[in-house]
Amino acid sequence: MTVVSLVTLGSGVRRTLSAGRDPVLERTLLAGFVAGIVPGIILSTIIEPWILGVALGPVFGLLYGLGFGPSTGSYLDHAVSAAAMSVPAWLLVHVIGLPLVHSRQPEWGLEGSTALAPTLVGWTVAGTLVGLLLVAASSVLEVRYGRVSRKPRQPAIETRIVILGGGFAGLTVAKRLEKRFGPDPTVQFTLVSETNAILFTPLLAEVAAGGLEPTHVTTPLRTSLKRTEVLMGTAVDVDLEEGYVVLDTDDDCPVDGRSTDIPANETRSIGDSASRDLVPYDHLVVALGSVADYKGLEGVREFAFDFKTLADAMAIRNHVIGCFERAERTADPATRERLLTFVIAGAGFAGAEFAGALNDFVRGTLIHYPTISSADVEVVVVHSRDRIMPELSDTLAAYALERMRDRGVRFELETYLETADRRTGVVSLSTGKSIGTETLVWTAGNRPNPFVELLGVPAERPGAITVDASLSVPGYDGVWAAGDCAAVPDPETGTRSPPTAEHATRAGTVLADNIYASVTGGSVSELDYRSPGSLAVVGYQTACAELWGRQFSGLLAWVLWRLVYLSKLPGTDRKIRVLVSWLIELVFPREFVQTMGERRRPPEEQ
Amino acid sequence: MIGGSAGLLGVLWLIGIGQGRVYWLPLGVLYGIVVTVVIGSRATDPGRGLIWGLGTGVLAWVLSVGTFLSLSSLLGFVELTTVDTHVPTLIRILLGLGAPVGLAVGLWQTRRTDGPLEPIDPVRALFAGGIAGVVGGWGFSIWMADVGMFPLVAELVGTTSPGLGRLVHFLIAVFIGVTFGLLFQRDARGHGSSMTWGLAYGLFWWLLGGLTLFPFFLGSTVTWTGAAVSGQLGSFVGHAVYGILLGVLYSIVDRTWLTLFYESDPLNRSVTAPGITVLQRTGWGLLASLVGGLIFGGIMWTTGDLVAVAELVGQPSPTVGFLVHIAISAIIGVTYGQLYCYESWTVGSGVAWGFLYGLIWWFVGALTLFPALLGAPLAWSGTAMAAAFPSLIGHLAYGGATGGVFYLLERRQRKWGRLHPRFTDRERDRRRTAGTPAPAAWLFILGLGMFVLVVVL
Question: Which residues cross the membrane (chain B) (predicted)?
Answer without folding.
Answer: 22-39, 51-78, 90-110, 122-144, 164-184, 196-219, 239-262, 283-302, 322-342, 354-380, 386-409, 438-456
